[in-house]
From TrEMBL:
<dbReference type="GO" id="GO:0008483">
    <property type="term" value="F:transaminase activity"/>
</dbReference>
<dbReference type="InterPro" id="IPR015421">
    <property type="entry name" value="PyrdxlP-dep_Trfase_major"/>
</dbReference>
<keyword id="KW-0808">Transferase</keyword>
<protein>
    <submittedName>
        <fullName>Pyridoxal-phosphate-dependent aminotransferase family protein</fullName>
    </submittedName>
</protein>
<feature type="domain" description="Aminotransferase class V">
    <location>
        <begin position="49"/>
        <end position="349"/>
    </location>
</feature>
<keyword id="KW-0032">Aminotransferase</keyword>
<dbReference type="Pfam" id="PF00266">
    <property type="entry name" value="Aminotran_5"/>
</dbReference>
<dbReference type="InterPro" id="IPR024169">
    <property type="entry name" value="SP_NH2Trfase/AEP_transaminase"/>
</dbReference>
<dbReference type="InterPro" id="IPR015424">
    <property type="entry name" value="PyrdxlP-dep_Trfase"/>
</dbReference>
<comment type="similarity">
    <text>Belongs to the class-V pyridoxal-phosphate-dependent aminotransferase family.</text>
</comment>
<feature type="region of interest" description="Disordered">
    <location>
        <begin position="1"/>
        <end position="35"/>
    </location>
</feature>
<dbReference type="InterPro" id="IPR000192">
    <property type="entry name" value="Aminotrans_V_dom"/>
</dbReference>
<keyword id="KW-0663">Pyridoxal phosphate</keyword>
<dbReference type="InterPro" id="IPR015422">
    <property type="entry name" value="PyrdxlP-dep_Trfase_small"/>
</dbReference>
Amino acid sequence: MHDRSPEIAGDAEAPQVGELSPPDRTLMGPGPSEVHPRVLRGMSTPLVGHLDPAFVEIMDEVQELLRYTFRTDNRWTIPVSGTGSASMEAAIGNLVEPGDMMLVPTNGYFGERMASMAERAGGDVVEVDAPWGEPLDPADVEAAFDAHQPDVFGFVHAETSTGVLQPHVSELTDIAHAHDAYVIADCVTSLGGVEMRVDEWDVDVAYSGPQKCLSCPPGASPLTLNDRAMDKVLDRDEQPRSWYLDLSLLEGYWGDERAYHHTAPITNVYAIREALRLVAEEGIESRWERHRAVAGDLKAGLQDLGLEMNAPDEYWLPSLNAVRVPDGIDDGAVIDYLLEEYDIEIASGLGDLAGDVWRIGCMGYSARPQNVEFLLAALEDALADQGFDGN
Ligand SMILES: *Cc1c(COP(=O)(O)O)cnc(C)c1O
């Protein structure tokens, strides 16, 4: 030790914290999903600067891989620094201008978050209703457009709170475009796990998160905008309220200029690059198919245990299986038992479905047959411990 200068006196008491050793969990909840070892390895590689030519090349590769995964040619396709809510707020906070009207769905938890973000952006919010556990009906969306003429329409492609997949995406985008509105799709629990075709389905803006079907730690979140949407963003009269998420500024870093805006989360960009490389290696269509097959076995196994899925089969969301809690069973006790006895994470219901469902994720690297078999065996035991006999 070198001698301390005389101005610094005394020794503050340093906290005694042990070495990091989180439990080894099997993650079958609504996210985060398990991370592929290759992604974890990628995260332990040395940093380069965020303007290093080597990093600029990595940025280009991430953008190319994101376009492939979103099924889009959109130039404005980037990972936003932050979790899925950051890409969500980047989408809504830039597209919705003060005085704009945004139409949001009421059939799940994340429509409410859309509404809250639109209000903070200075927008007015109107709703299109559907019960929690059902998708939007295009006829209701049409009626809401006729009644309110919204400027922006947001919907949730894969509702993580209800386990419902929104079908008819092209029908919804057709309705919105016939009314000159812009469409924002929440693809947080669908990107890389469930079929999503941004260009073919004419979605103007789509955002996602890394820690669901991409099986990447949270930190850099996919966002894509077509030229029409980006034109609206670049033509705004007023600056967006967030400096950090201002896409006209982020464009300077991710676009041709590559000028400093904020320091990119280098390690998270490495991580999503490797996670997306895994998507490309598997092939996006094969990956959608794997989620259907593995989650299909999960669903069949749950039904064999005597449990009932919350969503009707037509709207079943492979990446998030909402299953009804049988009468007389304490949902929390089962969740605790799985965690304590088996180190398995599943989640309880949210909002209108609190206490009524368990939410079992089957996403990315967690969507593997061995995880499903392990969970089903553990769940059978947990239910028996609660006195449930499904047969
Ligand atoms: C998880 C999730 C979000 C928010 O993502 P965070 O990473 O938690 O910020 C938004 N929408 C949906 C549908 C989600 O499942």
